[in-house]
Amino acid sequence: MKEKIWYIGGMYCPHCESAVVQAVNGLDGIADPRADYRTGTLTAVWDEDRLPEALLADCIAQAGYELKTGNNSVFRQMISLSVTLLSLAALYLLFGLLHLDSLFAVFPTARAGMRLSVVFVLGMFTSLHCVAMCGGINLVQSAASVQAGRKPVIANIQYNAGRLFSYTLIGGIVGALGTVLQISTMMQAFIQSAAAIIMVIMALNMLDLSALKGILPGHPGRRMPGSASSFWIGLLNGIMPCGPLQAMQIYALSTGRWYMGALSMACFALGTIPLMLGFGLVSGQMNKRFAKPMRILSGVLVLIMGMAMLNRGLSLFGIQGIPVQVMTDDALHIKNEVQVIRSELDWRSYPDIRVKAGIPVKWIIHADEGKITGCNNEMVIPSLKLRVSLQEGEKVVEFTADTAEVISYTCWMGMLHGTITVEQ
């Protein structure tokens, strides 16, 4: 017997290490198997006569992984990584160009005095937004559970239980203290960008780009029994910057009592669970039946969702992929050395305007009834350090841009975008 190192395709998390070791442990002709998902390798003491490599490959394939026969050179990894990063850059620019986030920017909001049954229904309608925002995290949990040989239903129940507990706790705090949990724009941008980067790296790992597998720290599930880590991830998911969540915090605030605040947030969370749970279970069952193709598909979906979240985070920092300018027909008038411009607000996008540098601007934004949503009700202009609340009727925004540039601005969630073109 001699020690041998094989390259294994499909390992992207510590759970995968356990699955690969379990697949070969106990086979006649192999001893002391050790897997490392970061390097994508399986190391063991092996007797080729007692265990042909073809049989070993079959056992690993039954667990949903692949025994690679070629080498896994650093050069090949870097070529693959370079192609992927170029594709990521193109995908990010595509999101900025098409404004795909605007498809999920409209969601119902709770009003003071609503019955709890209505709040539950609002949660059900809002769950589509939840899947778009956090579905990638849910998808990773399901895929990791399947790869670890566990039923995805357990991880999904624990993940959603964590969300429910977190939402309820926040509701109780808000109702008791009479304050809404608000996060600064920069902190919100940082949280979204950090979560997005982690999701993108997870996706690249799922797509078997081993050059990045050593970047992320070990998964909490490595130290927790079963899928207990899914509960803690659900807890953290409950404090993600989210429009419907903040709207519900305001509703919980209006109750004025801790138990009503907790109950209202719990009803809202329960309303979001059916679709989120179903999304995770369906993806988990598909992973179970078609391990390799679903791992690749899951990686692509997580990558897209991660790029969408990254686009939102960078927008809040004032960085936009492509500042697409769709110039409005709004007339610009200079009166008493002040630029006056009028714009109509639409729920799907923000207006793009053109102003002169060095001259004060009086920007009048008009919104018809029904055009204000939980997403477009507050816009952020990072470079001008402005955060503007909008309402039905007219809102006046005043600023002065000193240099010629294209200023990107966004809604407070980073989903809707607009530009201010400053000319000399």
Protein topology:
Blueprint lengths: L1 E8 L4 H11 L5 E7 L4 E6 L6 H10 L3 E3 L5 H25 L17 H32 L4 H26 L7 H22 L21 H10 L5 H13 L2 H32 L1 H26 L15 E4 L2 E7 L8 E4 L4 E7 L10 E4 L4 E4 L3 E7 L5 E7 L5 E7 L1
Helix pairs in contact: 3-10, 4-5, 4-9, 4-10, 5-7, 5-8, 5-9, 6-10, 8-9, 9-10
What does this entry look like structurally?
With 424 residues, this protein is α+β, with helices and mostly antiparallel strands. The protein has 3 domains: 2-68, Alpha-Beta Plaits (2-Layer Sandwich); 78-316, no CATH class; 332-423, Cupredoxins -  blue copper proteins (Immunoglobulin-like). 49% of the residues lie in helices and 18% in strands. It contains 10 helices and 13 strands. The protein has helices at residues 14-24, 53-62, 74-98, 116-147, 152-177, 185-206, 228-237, 243-255, 258-289, 291-316; strands at 2-9, 30-36, 41-46, 66-68, 332-335, 338-344, 353-356, 361-367, 378-381, 386-389, 393-399, 405-411, 417-423. The strands form 3 sheets. A 5-stranded mixed β-sheet has the order 7-13-12-9-10, with no helix packed on it. Strands 2-3-1-4 form a 4-stranded antiparallel β-sheet. A 4-stranded mixed β-sheet has the order 5-6-8-11, with no helix packed on it. Strand 12 (405-411) and strand 13 (417-423) form a beta hairpin. Helix 3 crosses helix 10.
Order of helices and strands: EHEEHEHHHHHHHHEEEEEEEEE
Number of strands: 13
Helix content: 40-55%
Strand order of the largest sheet: 7-13-12-9-10
Q: What overall form do the CA principal axes indicate?
A: flat
Structural class: alpha+beta
The structural domain count equals 3
Q: How much strand content do the residues show?
A: 15-25%
Q: What gyration radius follows from the Cα positions, in whole Å?
A: 25 Å
Assembly state here? Answer: single chain
Count of DSSP helices? 10
Largest sheet: 5 strands, mixed
Distance between the termini: 77 Å
Q: Regions with pLDDT < 50 over 5+ consecutive residues? A: 217-227, 323-327
Q: Please, what is the average pLDDT?
A: 75
